[in-house]
């Protein structure tokens, strides 16, 4: 018996039978591009195959050099390439899994001076103007796709996925925005559809009728002059007739200004479009984007909204996602919180992807939590992300762990983050940590402020006492209107109608979002606020609806740089857009003068002004809390000397970079070394 009978039911795609309907969607991890990284990539995939996933899809491999994602990016162009991929396919098969190669042509998204496209219109997110391909070159590109697909089969892949979404070459061929041709490859919607149809027909001729060809279709382009729904439906029908085995789904081009996968996108937001696709084709359809739990995935398959569910980042966060679900241990799944901080933000900065919550992701061969036979006792002081990750990783290795926490709950700064609208998923991390501590029988002592004397008997002491909000040095800072962000987010105080936020870092931006949100945004409101069309509009876009104004919010910083500059590369723009659309007044270059009953006095551009606010929320960064660490260093204890076996991690170590990604990685690495 399982709680997920529909999700875990096998499905047959051509000559391939998958053990369940869970797909690990394509992600570019940064390990794809060099063959010397293939052993590492193979282990990354094999760990997920052992974790029970039905089908893994690789990151994109270029079908020709013009289609490179960046210079010398991964490609599938020759028998030699196919041979080199054997290490990957063998590893996955030995681990009991199945794997598909994604074939891609980056088109104008290629971060390379050799990129090429349907037209020479430059993309807003890459610096290189594409070469406009001739009709003959486009014809040859279709052959290149077909050849790559045939080579993938030779390499031992069980299937291929043709990347037709997210604004890459095929998607560019399909949209007027990027295809201004008037030859046989453009001019009308029907001619623009010809390219992907030719790709599938030519590939079918090479690989025969049964090799599974998955087509990743763009269900919504979310760009001006993109496709209409009617065009997408017609394309799907033609592709099915050409020989597609299954459709996977994609939402939004990379240049779209509507968020599609980050935390603030409601879960399952894109399912209505998947259902529409299912109503026009008869081959299986996979749902994707903002699905991160087995419950949600089961519901999607059980209700027939899709036949399979593709999740990508959830498999960075937890390689054992499927096994845990199948074994009745879903409450032990480390749920992806859609923050993008260690995955997409890394990819778009040319760094190897990983996961904020699981620093082992893509580092499986390097960060190993080896079981230990030594019977060491470990005290961890502080149950924020750093302390929790150290405690859990140490206990996983078999060490005896006691976790001290001064407050009545674990989670640290995550408890504040989960109060921010759109960051509700952060609760899942607290649930995961709580359950893992139980399962691993960590001795958790809440409401216990450990002193050095309490820690003397432990072999190792990990101090993860975190941070506290930095106090501001402004005359009148003790005025009753001044509150900390911790007090606001924990519900200890309620803000008035007019609020000033001092400090516009990650926390200030989050607090401004919290203050300007009415807490009642239904899914239709969300579409309307982002201008997503639920009809047949070009590109799936309509004019954005105004957001209701909840309060007067002023977000302030002393720097003269634009507010929100330091936010994540793939999510910061969306946070900034929400602030703007919510009417938050953002002011840089302020000098704080004083606070009194009239409000906050400041000077901007040499002009004095008073913000007549009821509440002033201080988000001025943090300072480390390390009293117990200092005490330990000055104490000679039973470990044989002051400071012996004492380790400092997380915000208690470096508050300036208060950053859960660094804290969790530091905690895990330390535990691996104890
Ligand atoms: P932060 O990024 O250091 O920002 C605090 C801001 O307060 C500074 O930028 C500074 O701006 C201002 N400030 C500093 N000292 C001040 C003082 N004495 N008086 C008045 N203003 C002062 O800290 P944070 O906002 O707490 O964020 C910390 C970290 O949390 C971030 O780096 C990020 O890693 C993480 N985080 C990220 C997000 C996100 O990406 N959405 C959300 C939450 C947290 P001025 O000096 O210019 O005034
Ligand atoms: Fe998910 Fe964030 Fe991890 Fe990326 S870094 S996989 S978004 S939790």
Give an overview of the whole structure:
- The chain is an alpha/beta fold and 674 residues long.
- It has 3 domains: 26-41 and 50-285, Aldolase class I (TIM Barrel, Alpha-Beta Barrel); 377-467 and 623-673, Rossmann fold (3-Layer(aba) Sandwich), CATH 3.40.50.720; 471-516 and 551-620, FAD/NAD(P)-binding domain.
- The protein is built from 23 helices and 27 strands.
- The strands form 7 sheets. The protein has an 8-stranded parallel sheet. The protein has a 5-stranded parallel sheet with strand order 15-14-13-16-27, with helices on both faces. A 5-stranded parallel sheet has the order 18-25-19-20-21.
- Helix 1 (38-50) packs parallel to helix 3, helix 4 runs parallel beside helix 7 and helix 14 (385-397) runs parallel beside helix 23.
- The model has no long low-confidence stretch (mean pLDDT 95).
- The chain binds NADP nicotinamide-adenine-dinucleotide phosphate and iron/sulfur cluster (SF4).
- Residues 313, 316-317, 336-343, 355-357 line the site of iron/sulfur cluster.
- Residues 313, 316-317, 336-343, 355-357 line the site of iron/sulfur cluster (SF4).
Describe this structure in a few short sentences:
The chain contains 23 helices and 27 strands. By secondary structure, the chain is α/β, with parallel strands linked by helices. Helix 4 (135-154) runs parallel beside helix 7 (194-207) and helix 19 (506-515) runs parallel beside helix 21 (572-581).
């Amino acid at each position: 018996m399982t709680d997920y009978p529909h999700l875990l039911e096998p499905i047959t795609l051509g000559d391939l039978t998958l053990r369940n309907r869970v797909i690990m969607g394509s992600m570019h991890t940064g390990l794809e591009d060099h063959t010397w990284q293939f052993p590492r990539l193979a282990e990354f995939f094999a760990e997920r195959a052992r974790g029970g996933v039905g089908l893994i899809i690789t990151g994109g491999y270029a079908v020709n050099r013009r289609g490179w994602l960046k210079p010398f990016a991964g490609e599938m162009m020759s028998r030699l390439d196919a041979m080199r991929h054997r290490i990957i396919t063998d590893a996955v098969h030995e681990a009991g899994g199945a794997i598909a190669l994604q074939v891609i042509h980056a088109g104008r998204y290629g971060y390379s001076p050799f990129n090429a496209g349907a037209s020479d219109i430059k993309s807003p997110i890459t610096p290189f103007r594409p070469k406009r391909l001739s009709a003959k070159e486009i014809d040859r590109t279709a052959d290149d796709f077909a050849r790559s697909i045939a080579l993938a089969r030779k390499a031992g892949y069980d299937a291929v996925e043709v990347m037709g979404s997210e604004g890459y070459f095929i998607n560019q061929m399909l949209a007027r925005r990027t295809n201004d041709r008037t030859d046989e490859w453009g001019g009308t919607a029907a001619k623009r559809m010809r390219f992907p149809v030719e790709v599938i027909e030519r590939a079918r001729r090479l690989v025969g009728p049964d090799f599974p060809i998955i087509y990743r279709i763009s269900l919504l382009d979310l760009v001006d002059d993109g496709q209409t729904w009617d065009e997408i439906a017609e394309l799907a029908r033609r592709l099915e007739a050409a020989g597609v085995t299954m459709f996977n789904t994609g939402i939004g081009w990379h240049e779209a200004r509507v968020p599609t996968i980050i935390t603030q996108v409601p879960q399952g937001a894109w399912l209505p479009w998947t259902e529409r696709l299912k109503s026009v084709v008869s081959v299986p359809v996979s749902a994707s984007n903002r699905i991160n739990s087995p419950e949600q995935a089961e519901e999607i398959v059980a209700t027939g909204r899709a036949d399979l569910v593709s999740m990508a980042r959830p498999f960075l966060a937890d390689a054992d996602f499927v096994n845990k679900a199948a074994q009745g241990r879903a409450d032990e799944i480390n749920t992806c919180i859609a923050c993008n901080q260690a995955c997409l933000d890394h990819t778009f900065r040319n760094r190897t992807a990983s996961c904020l919550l699981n620093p082992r992701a893509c580092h499986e061969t390097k960060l190993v939590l080896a079981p230990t036979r030594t019977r060491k006792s470990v005290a961890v002081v502080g149950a924020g992300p750093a302390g929790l990750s150290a405690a859990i990783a140490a206990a996983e290795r078999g060490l005896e762990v006691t976790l001290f926490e001064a407050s009545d709950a674990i989670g640290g700064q995550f408890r504040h983050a989960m109060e921010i609208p759109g960051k509700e998923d952060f609760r899942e991390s607290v649930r995961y940590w709580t359950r893992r501590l139980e399962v691993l029988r960590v001795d958790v002592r809440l409401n216990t402020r450990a002193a050095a004397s309490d820690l003397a008997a432990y072999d190792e002491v990990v101090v993860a006492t975190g941070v506290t909000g930095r106090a501001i040095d402004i005359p009148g800072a003790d005025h009753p209107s001044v509150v900390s962000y911790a007090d606001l987010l924990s519900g200890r105080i309620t803000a008035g109608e007019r609020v000033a936020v001092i400090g516009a870092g990650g926390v200030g931006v989050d607090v401004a979002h919290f203050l300007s949100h009415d807490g009642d945004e239904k899914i239709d409101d969300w579409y309307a606020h982002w201008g997503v069309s639920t009809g047949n509009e070009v590109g799936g876009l309509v004019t954005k609806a105004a957001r209701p104004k909840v309060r007067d919010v002023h977000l302030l910083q002393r720097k003269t740089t634009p507010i929100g500059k330091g936010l994540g590369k793939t999510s910061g723009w969306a946070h900034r857009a929400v602030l703007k659309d919510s009417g938050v007044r953002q002011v840089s270059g302020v000098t704080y003068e004083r606070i009194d009953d009239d409000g906050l006095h400041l000077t901007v551009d040499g002009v004095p002004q008073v913000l007549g606010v009821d509440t002033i929320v201080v988000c001025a960064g943090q300072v480390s809390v390390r009293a117990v660490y200092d005490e330990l260093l000055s104490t000679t204890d039973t470990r044989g000397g002051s400071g012996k076996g004492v380790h400092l991690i997380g915000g208690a170590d470096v508050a300036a970079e208060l950053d859960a990604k660094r804290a969790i990685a530091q905690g895990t690495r330390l535990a691996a070394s104890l």
